[in-house]
Amino acid sequence: MSTLLELSGVSVSFDGFRAINNLSFQIGEPEMRAIIGPNGAGKTTFMDIITGKTRPDAGSVLWGEKSVSLLRKSESAIAREGIGRKFQKPTVFEAQTVRENLAMALKNPRGPFDVLMHRKTPEGAARIEALAEEIGLTGQLGRIAGELSHGQKQWLEIGMLLAQAPRLLLVDEPAAGMTPAEREHTTDLLKRAAETRAVVVVEHDMEFVRRLECKVTVLHEGSVLAEGSLDHVTKNKDVIDVYLGR
Amino acid sequence: MSLVQDSGPRRPFILRHPSVLLFLGALAAFTIVVTILSEAAGLGLVSTSFVKTLGKTLCLCLVAVAMDVLWGYCGILSLGHMAFFGIGGYAIGMWLMYARTEAIVADNLAAAPIPPTPQEISDAIGSQIFGVVGSSEFPLIWSFADSLFLQLLAVIVVPGLLALVFGWLAFRGRVTGVYLSILTQAMTLALALYLFQNDSGLRGNNGLSGLQNIPGWEDWPQSVVSLVFFWASALALALGYVLCAWIVSGKLGSVIRGIRDDEARVRFLGYHVESYKLFIFVLTAVIAGIAGALYYPQAGIINPAEIAPIASIYLAVWVAIGGRGRLYGAVIGAAFVSLLSSWFTGGGAPPINLGFYTIQWTDWWLVLLGLSFVLVTLFAPKGLGGLVDLWTERRRTADRVGDYGPDKGAWRREEGEE
Amino acid sequence: MIRAFLLALFLLVSAPIGAQAQQSDLQSILQDYQEIVASPSRRTVGPMLEALAASGLPGTLGFLEAFQNRDVWVRGADGLFFYVIERDDDQFTLLDIATGEEVGTADKSEIEQIRPNGGVRREIGSALVQFQLSDPDIERRQAAVDAIARDLSADQIGPLSGAIDNEADPDLKARKEMLLGMLIAGFGDVPEERITAIETLADRSSVEARAVLNQILRSSSEVAADLPEGENIAGERIVGVDLSREEAYLELVDAGLAPQRISADALRAALVENLADGAVGGVPVDELGDPARRVDAYQALAEAGQVAPFVTEDEITAALAAHTFYDVYAEADASVTRAAEEALAAIETRVAMGQAVDLGLDALSLASIYFLAAIGLAVTFGVMGVINMAHGEFIMMGAYTGYVVQLVIPDYTLSLVVALPLAFAVTFAAGVAMERLVIRWLYHRPLETLLATFGISIALQQLAKNIFGTQARPLTSPGWLDGARVVNDVVQISYIRIAIFVLALMFLVLILFILNRTRLGLEVRAVTQNPGMAASMGINPDRINMLTFGLGSGVAGIAGVAIGLYAKVTSEMGSDYIVQSFMTVVVGGVGNVWGTLAGAALIGSFQKGIEWLNPSNTLAAQTYMIIIIIIFIQFRPRGIIALKGRAAGG
């Protein structure tokens, strides 16, 4: 397992409020990692920094074997490097069909002229079928995404992430608002995804994190408070104080 | 919507989108009927000036289609696209005016005892064209006015270039939504104010005139000229419609609709959103320029007032009333509102006598338009095109009640995808 | 001493006693010069005027004025002079020239009007000046001083210097002294005195002082083979730098130092003239479309002596090289011109500084206008996120409200006092109605809001046109707002602009107060930041939105009254301000009153700055300003005063 992404000494503040404070973090490939922390711990900002939405005031973000800095890259360029992000609220293109959603995410040249001249291929169609199978939406490809249930939208979004064939998947609270059965399916999806790539899951729900069976990083006030197995961190006194004890 | 549906990859594009075929058929039938009824064909049921009105309306439909791609599909409400339309008009107008003046001047000078020098010809043309603004010098931007080819090129290049520079600045700065709308409005206002100056080199508020006289076609009566431009406008609309339909129905269409609905999501999928917006912005600007170049020879005159912000807002009004997000909606809206507008403002509508007050439509049409626009926005966001939905929805319901049932219907659509 | 003298003068002028005796005195003096008065000429009128001046008679002033205005008539029979009143029946009533009493009538044929020519009237005028400068009525003295100031000339030195010592009014005395200084500077006989006077002028920056100095520095353009000795030369002019090649050669021709150049038209005319057998000078006609061939043909004609010789470019170059172009002062004394140059430079530096201040004040008042126009928008757009394209029409409604109030209440001060709150009320109501009927259905659909409010905007605009017509309606400001506060000749600011500035300031304070210090403001901020939370705390977001929108619209109405006072009231006035207002809000930073202030200041000074660089063209100024704003937004997309962090969204 080699290091895929490394953040070191990253800080960012908004109007004097330090959202991220000298944060260091790394993840290998393949690996599954859960990030927990109380509200305002900087989880979302952490993802914003990796995906290029927020530029840190200090620190470095290095990516891949060649340790490329991500700080100068645009959001879309970072996404093309192989980082996929799933938002807290399911964000799929509700006016378009499931198939169109997946087709848009499929790893293909992203330039406007490439897309304009894009021709549908049997390989692409097969890939979409396979993805639909994976996320359990086989029968739904022709439906308008807006008609899907909440859980199905979450899966569709994960499916879109997988379609991008990313090396790192950032998933923000995937289980929120799901039924127990849907959660189970989501856990399986993520675990399967983590077999071949790095997956970072931000989650509040301890039960869900436990089922992921992975290393856990606890964020507090913008820095790493503890890191290790779930059992290990839940025994950490600091963690109990700031988070679990409440 | 039929445009949104995908069909098998091997069937031609047109066949996959019956609405395009339907539209082209309707346009062709309309063109033929007008031609037969025109004065040029001898029947004379449609006057030459009305043929010109219809031709101009087709040009407006074309720019509305472009606007629909930009606004209805890509979500960018530009309040400045009529600036590109006007630039197209100015570009062709410069050649029309130059070439015609040159012919007149050549005639005048031919009577002189000794042949004119090139300088004398140029001076004479200059004082003919720029006399109204108290100048006789040719401004730099008229350098290529003698070349039809270069001015035609300018019809495409100048709006495209302006859109490229403006769009690049705006999109790079992540200006979106209403900010962008207001910025585009400022752009067209700046251009209009600039052209209003006498030393802008384009005859200030006099604009360019006499554009209906096409150099080289002096022997043709206006009835024929008007018909030729009518055909050209219809052809341009057909081509523009097919091009836009092709763009919005493919994967690019899927991406730009994604940008319209959730820009950030598209960005995190790895698409460089700004490039897409810029592509659509420039493309629609070029289409607008071409539409303008066809419009103004039929209108005969162009002046800076045509570029004022209000014109672009009307463009948005047409598309909204027609129904955005569907290309034929834009065509319906532009044709319906602009024809209705010229009927009302041209005094075609009879005044209504209320006893204590007589409603003169020339005075009250704008009030009516403004209010109906509010009503459409509030109560019929789908616009006139929404009426088509009523019809197709009913038919679809009928299908479901009949043989297939709801599940079958869903399945059929799904089958159509691949 | 002076007072006693004035008293004596007063008695002398106003005393009606002994009118009969005086009448004969004035008339008799005139009779001494009867022929000169009856048919005056510039050369002969002098002694008569001196005699009149010496007499010190009270009617003299009135007579001279009447004489100058051609109101004096002469009776043919006895050569006596009268004033007349023309009656309906071709008869004239004769008035005595000293008392103005009726002394009889005459037929038109019996009397004749005396018509002094322009030269004579000027002579009379300068004689009058003496009287007027010492007139007991201060307004007449003032008028006489103004008359001198309008048209300075050497012969005024005498009368003016004689009228300074006995001047009672200190202001007027100072002005007289200043004028005398100018006269001496311009026309004095002793160079030392002139230089001293010029140096005194350097401390003033009045237009008059500058005019005097420019008068001294008058120069004429000359050309000669070499710079002449002994003349007061202002400077050499270089061809290609100070004057163009064409202008320079034209001067040579005018000075008779070079032959006339053959213009293209003259050349063509000469060729046409000498056209014979399809050729000119051996060149066939159909080759004459080539300019070079035309010259060939002309030179052939010139060699044959049929036309003036052609001047080639080389000859022109040689002629220009052989001559020196220079300016020479009309004033021969170099020390005087040098002093004047230095004084003018000093004045111009001060004037430039004054102009900078003036420009700053202009920018400030423009910024106030923009601020007033935009502040309502900043509330609706910035705080609520609602785009109101009809904002400009609310401004217009406010202005028309003011106009209607003035129709009803003729007193301008009172009508203004009524109009301001009424405009607020009207537009507040309109704003609330619009929010209830349209905008609240479109929250979170900003583009649709934009278009719907635009529909309202065109409807309102046309409605105003239907009601009030297309021509501009006056909104007259009260008398105490007329005029301007004059700081000096360069810097002045009209009271109306000061009033608008004060109004803008009041609004800034008011809006800040409402948003930051009142319950309503607190609730507005709560709803802006988190509507759900606000609602759960018992705040009714509907009500708050309605009130906020009403407030923003009401402010627009008041701005309309203010703008109407300063500009014209038309149905289209709103659209003149809407784009600028949006720019102001966007440039300043959305959601921030201070930002709007900064935006208004920036845009106001931009526009004035550009107008200053290119004063002839306000249209271009607006064009460039918009371009600058578009570029500005590149670098600060969130405006000058930007909210940062999560609150800014994104």
Number of strands of chain C: 12
**Radius of gyration computed on alpha carbons of chain C:** 37 Å
**Biggest sheet architecture of chain C:** 5 strands, antiparallel
Number of strands of chain B: 4
* Count, helices of chain B: 16
CATH topology assignment of the largest domain in chain C: ABC transporter involved in vitamin B12 uptake, BtuC
What integer value in Å does the Rg of chain B equal? 24 Å
Structural class of chain C: alpha+beta
Biggest sheet overview of chain B = 2 strands, antiparallel
Strand content of chain C: 5-15%
CATH class of the largest domain in chain C: Mainly Alpha
Largest interface: B-C, 54 and 53 residues
CATH architecture of the largest domain in chain C: Orthogonal Bundle
Q: What is the arithmetic mean of pLDDT of chain C?
A: 81
The tally of domains of chain C stands at 4
Summarize the structure.
The complex is a heterotrimer of chains A (246), B (418) and C (650). Chain A has helices spanning 43-50, 75-81, 98-105, 112-116, 122-135, 150-163, 180-193, 206-212, 230-235, 237-244; strands spanning 2-14, 17-29, 31-36, 58-63, 68-69, 83-86, 168-172, 198-202, 215-220, 223-228.
Written overview of the protein:
The complex is a heterotrimer of chains A (246), B (418) and C (650). Chain A is 37% helix and 27% strand. Chain A has ten helices and ten strands. Chain A has a single domain (2-244), classed as P-loop containing nucleotide triphosphate hydrolases (Rossmann fold). Chain A has helices spanning 43-50, 75-81, 98-105, 112-116, 122-135, 150-163, 180-193, 206-212, 230-235, 237-244, and strands spanning 2-14, 17-29, 31-36, 58-63, 68-69, 83-86, 168-172, 198-202, 215-220, 223-228. Chain A has a six-stranded mixed sheet with strand order 6-7-8-3-9-10, with helices on both faces. Chain B is an all-alpha fold and 418 residues long. Chain B has 16 helices and four strands. A two-stranded antiparallel sheet of chain B has the order 1-2. A two-stranded antiparallel ribbon of chain B has the order 3-4. Chain B is globular and about 75 Å long. The two termini of chain B are 17 Å apart. Chain C has 650 residues and is α+β, with helices and mostly antiparallel strands. Chain C is built from 26 helices and twelve strands. A five-stranded antiparallel sheet of chain C has the order 4-3-2-1-5. Chain C has a three-stranded antiparallel sheet with strand order 6-10-7, with helices on one face. In chain C, helix 13 packs across helix 14 (291-303), helix 16 (334-383) packs antiparallel against helix 25 (593-613) and helix 25 (593-613) crosses helix 26. The longest helix of chain C is centred in the middle third of the chain and has 50 residues, at 334-383. Chain C starts with a helix and ends in a 15-residue tail after the last helix. Chain A binds chain C through residues 14-15, 17, 19, 53, and chain C through 644-646, 650.
